[in-house]
Design brief:
Elements: E1 2-6, H1 10-21, E2 25-29, H2 33-42, E3 44-48, E4 51-55, E5 58-60, E6 69-74, H3 81-91, E7 92-100, H4 107-115, E8 120-125, E9 128-131, E10 136-141, E11 145-149, H5 156-166, E12 172-174, H6 178-199, H7 203-207, H8 210-230, H9 239-249, H10 255-261, H11 272-282, H12 287-302
Parallel strand pairs: 1-2, 1-6, 2-5, 3-10, 6-7, 7-8, 11-12
Antiparallel strand pairs: 3-4, 8-11, 9-10
Helix pairs in contact: 3-4, 6-8, 6-10, 6-12, 8-11, 11-12
């Protein structure tokens, strides 16, 4: 099986390396020549909860050099999904398909628009990781991954993909309601990630800091109000309680915090900003979410400002 990995960040390296360890031919695409050089010279290194492994891979900055692939594994930031979908369309075999395990809403739709629902799988993952340099990932938490077909059917290829990941020690469950699973993770990400990014606190630390927890709960209550108004049925019996428990158990650095600390754009547009837009369409006010969006956008913009001179 030939896999085109589109997105070589922390999670791309973790899931791409898992497929490569299982025998898949992995070819990686990245815009950065430095990242591609690192991939070509050293392969992908993943260390953490499953030990330390290095896998050799091919890599390129040119989508035309990917060749024809059986699958495109899409793990770019949500802002780049439309471009990634076009790349996937160009590199997949006629019977090839894409798998997205991205955060946020709109990724599934972008892939379906480009490829059609019959050629798209999507899902969510509660694995956590952080980048340690080009083609280097620290797998910090081994969590459950949920995958499903965009068509809502169960299929032999879906089961085969699950078995490939399971064979590498990763927990995978399948669903015929993948959109509900994506919204479940969306709610988690919207509630936790911006609070972590704005305060510098990790999830468990948020629960140990009453003002941060109070802010998170206000944000979460608005999110759940919008979900209810949209008629979306989440898989959790009590999403609010599960999110709070999830926070208590996790000491990872959410991706939004990693991005801000690294001076990179965040996924706020596919998370709380998307939530604010949905709320506006329903005529609902979500002031806490609106405020955290503005705060995150301000920090993103601040990263581009010139440094303050010494002594000022």
């Amino acid at each position: 099986m030939k896999v085109a990995l589109i997105g070589t960040g922390a999670m791309g390296c973790i899931f791409g390396a898992a497929l490569a360890r299982g025998g898949a031919e992995l070819v990686c695409l990245d815009r950065s020549a430095d990242v591609v050089t690192a991939l070509q010279q050293h392969g992908i290194l993943v260390r953490g909860v499953l030990g330390e492994q290095t896998v050799p891979v091919r890599a390129t900055t040119d989508p035309a050099q990917l060749g024809l692939a059986d699958m495109a594994l899409v793990l770019v930031d949500a802002a780049a999904t439309s471009a990634a979908a076009a790349i996937a369309k160009g590199c997949l075999k006629p019977d090839g398909f894409a798998l997205s395990l991205q955060n946020g809403i709109g990724n599934l739709e972008a892939l379906v628009d480009a490829l059609g629902p019959q050629r798209v799988m999507a899902g969510i993952t509660y694995n956590s990781g952080s980048g340690e340099g080009p083609a280097r990932s620290w797998h910090t938490h081994l969590g459950l991954t949920t995958m499903g077909e965009a068509t809502g059917t169960m299929s032999p290829r879906l089961e085969a993909m699950a078995e490939r990941f399971r064979a590498q020690g990763m927990a995978v469950e399948l669903t015929d309601k993948v959109e509900a699973a994506i919204w479940s993770k969306f709610v988690h990400n919207c509630a936790i990630n911006p609070i972590s990014a704005l305060t510098g606190l990790r999830p468990a630390q948020i629960m140990q800091t009453p003002p941060a927890q109070a802010l998170m709960e206000h944000v979460m209550d608005e999110i759940l109000q919008v979900v209810d108004a949209l008629g979306i049925v989440l898989p959790e019996h009590d999403a609010r309680s599960e999110i709070l428990q999830h926070c208590r158990e996790r000491m990872n650095r959410p991706s939004m915090l990693q991005h801000l600390q690294g001076g990179k754009p965040t996924e706020i547009g596919a998370l709380n900003e998307a939530l604010v837009a949905r709320a506006a369409g329903l005529g609902l006010a979500v002031p806490y979410n609106s405020a955290v969006v503005l705060a995150v956008r301000a920090l993103e913009a601040a990263a581009a400002l010139p440094p303050v001179p010494d002594g000022v």
